[in-house]
Amino acid sequence: MLSRLSIRNYAIIEQLEIDFSSNLNIITGETGAGKSIIVGALGLILGQRSESNILKNKDSKCVVEGCFKGEASDSHVVSFLKANELDVLDELTVRRELAPNGKSRAFINDTPVNLSQLNQLSSLLVDLHQQFDTLELGQTDFQREVLDVLAGNSKNLKKYGQLYADMQAAAHELDLLTEQKSRFEKEFDYHQFQFNELDEAGFRENELEELEQELKMLTNAEGIKNALTKTYFELEEDEAPLIRRLKTLSSQLQQYADLHPELPQLVQRLQSSYLELQDIADETERINDHIGSDASTIDKINERISLGYKLLKKHGVKTTNELLGIHADLNARLQEVLNIDDAIAKAEKKHQQLLSEAEDLASKISVARLAQVKPLEQQVNKMLGPVGMPNARLKVEIRKVPLYNYGIDDVVFLFDANKSNNFQPIRKVASGGELSRLMLCIKSLVARSMNMPTLIFDEIDTGISGEAARQVGAIMKELAASRQVLCITHQPQIAGKADAHYLVYKALKNDTVTTGMRLLNTDERIVAIARMLSGEKPTAAAMENAREMIMN
């Protein structure tokens, strides 16, 4: 519950700190005194958006802080704190700071958090209902949520939401594969032609580059043979062959090798040169024997190279290996066409399985909703009489719709204000006052199922008075027996039910108007309620009536 609220430098509030009771807290005050400003400040620590123009002193920051007690025993709150690595303390402190430059910071137990985290936490702590929120009652999402809360569908809905998301993803994957197959089929013939062309060419790695080298050799075969023949002749067959002369020189030096220390090395080098030249002569002869200029071979190579150049140009590449890469890529694409049917079959199976699971769970959720229709109608209709709508009736209609992210149900609240049996959607036929009372009846039922620790009503009593207002007060009093309720009201019948009654007022401080708020004692409550009954100067009858309201 909200045990303490502290506000500094917000709108016309300079400094305000107030402690709340754990039951029914009533807040009253003249129109324009600042009651809604306090609710606005409270909204900041609940994660609502802020504006820099709400600063009273433009040179100082605005700070709103709320302390909540008893949340350490709430498993949902504790789970949230642990999941977000926040301290779990006996007292939960939420603070929001607005700087003059418009920047906003939020803290939970003095740890910085973002607005999304603040919103998540506030949804576990407080339900804030403001005047315009009655419009939610006419929205189908809200109507469905009411049934889901009463039916306890939270866990199943979370599981279903994941299932539905997975099913949608599987459907998207199936669509992509189907589109891909269509595209593949359109391109298949062209890719098959290109693949066959390259496959028939049958090039091996670096073949064109090697053929070019071979062609150069063949076209210059005669010159190469002449050079080799002349080399061999000079080495072995000349009148004075170089090899034989080298051997003679080596023999001449050999006979004097023992007479000079450097001669053996020279002899060894001459012998090595002799052996090397002998080997060169043999290799020259061998190469020469294998070189020939065959015209048919040259023609074949030219044809092969010509085919290769044609394919290189066609595919915009420069090497044989790049051409082989294209061949491999085309083969992979053709295999994809053959394999995509298997992929589509697997995707269809996955989608059908998820669809079946989602439909089963949606049916369970739907059954749980249907089970709450009659109890909700009966309880709300029972409450409508005491709050001033004895002839009004609520009817809940569930229509089956195609599977969507909340199941297979379209939930619609229908309303008949005059026992005419002409039920119409609430948003079309209910007045503002009727919507307010309907919302209170429904929220009182929902609150019991949700176990929401704090409920805040900002002038939900608009458009009612007298006995209806008294019954609204009775409903709030009953709600406050097991949870904290804060209510801003103009109705004395509701104010008389308070466990703690606070007055919001304006005061002049240093020539500046500021808003204050204080807890009233019993005598002050009697005066405040009497003024609500009869004006600024309450009559004796009004004072007595106010006293009776409080005592009863």
Automatic annotation (TrEMBL):
GO terms for cellular component: bacterial nucleoid. The keyword ATP-binding applies. GO terms for biological process: DNA recombination; DNA repair; SOS response. Residues 2-507 form the RecF/RecN/SMC N-terminal domain. Keywords: ATP-binding, Coiled coil, DNA damage, DNA repair, Nucleotide-binding. Pfam families: SMC_N (PF02463). GO terms for molecular function: ATP binding. CDD domains: ABC_RecN. Gene3D superfamilies: P-loop containing nucleotide triphosphate hydrolases. Residues 167-221, 337-364 form a coiled coil. NCBIfam families: recN (TIGR00634). May be involved in recombinational repair of damaged DNA. Belongs to the RecN family. This is DNA repair protein RecN. It comes from Flavisolibacter ginsengisoli DSM 18119. The lineage of its organism: Bacteria, Pseudomonadati, Bacteroidota, Chitinophagia, Chitinophagales.
